Amino acid sequence: MYRVLLVDDEILVLKSLEAGVNWRKSGFQVAGKAHNADQALQLAAEIKPHIVFTDIRMPGMSGLELMKKMKETDEQILFVVISGYAEFEYVKKSLHYGVLGYCLKPFDDEEIDVLLHSAAAILEENKLKRQNSLLELLDEGVTEYSQHRVDQILTEAGLTAGEFHVLVALGKGTLELEENDRWVGFKLGNDKYGFFVQFAHPQAFERLLTSRFPDCWMGVGVVTTARDMKSMTKNLELASVRAWDFFLHGRAGYFRGNDPGREAMAARLVKQLTDAVGQKKFRAGAGAPRCLATEGKQGMFNDQGCAENL
């Protein structure tokens, strides 16, 4: 869900806007409400909103000043101006700050739905750009610029902590993360996906690990990483190895490691699979190689459509 921050000095306006719009239908949730610009800035630092609906005229800092300050810390944040008919000319000035649109009071639900649809399209495009940029930067290696850009991309996605989790999943689907978890995902290959996740609290992480494992995944490797690129790259590789532990354990699930012997065996199996794919020794049209023998011996593949004669 994309996070929305509502800002207006009139309590009734905030209540009307929150209750009168089906936010979830468009993929949004109201994450915070503020009665003035100063409170909005504090909330924005905590919840990292994707879009802000703000009044223009408020006591103290104006909506225009608020947008300017927020843009300084998050260039991709979106704005919708809410205003009365008498302030229409003033609203035009806000277009200078690149606002998505404006809503005149009283609110038109259909008009807001159209704006949310446009916002979702922009946010999805921005997300895709972040994912592609992140992978390219990690592939290029560590420089002062690349580390700065990686930090920037993570922050834009809401990952602000010094440590977070790396998850690599084999299969197809989505992770069942909670609304307040922050994450950025990317495709690593055929039926292989990576995620950097900052869980809202330790209980959210434990709930994920103990919840019913999704049928769409075979194995998910889990590692904790520091924020620097060297650690992220290393732990992305380690999570990839752990994801293949479903071969060794004979079951699907989340795998956190803790057994050096099994991890070494999994690493050898991953290399074996990689080499086999590189040499095109998999049968054409074969699906995910679920049938790899779990003994971890060199060349142990069976004849159920995975690989042969290694």
From TrEMBL:
<feature type="modified residue" description="4-aspartylphosphate">
    <location>
        <position position="55"/>
    </location>
</feature>
<dbReference type="InterPro" id="IPR051552">
    <property type="entry name" value="HptR"/>
</dbReference>
<dbReference type="InterPro" id="IPR011006">
    <property type="entry name" value="CheY-like_superfamily"/>
</dbReference>
<dbReference type="GO" id="GO:0003677">
    <property type="term" value="F:DNA binding"/>
</dbReference>
<feature type="domain" description="Response regulatory">
    <location>
        <begin position="3"/>
        <end position="120"/>
    </location>
</feature>
<keyword id="KW-0963">Cytoplasm</keyword>
<dbReference type="InterPro" id="IPR001789">
    <property type="entry name" value="Sig_transdc_resp-reg_receiver"/>
</dbReference>
<dbReference type="Pfam" id="PF00072">
    <property type="entry name" value="Response_reg"/>
</dbReference>
<dbReference type="GO" id="GO:0000160">
    <property type="term" value="P:phosphorelay signal transduction system"/>
</dbReference>
<keyword id="KW-0238">DNA-binding</keyword>
<keyword id="KW-0597">Phosphoprotein</keyword>
<protein>
    <submittedName>
        <fullName>Response regulator</fullName>
    </submittedName>
</protein>
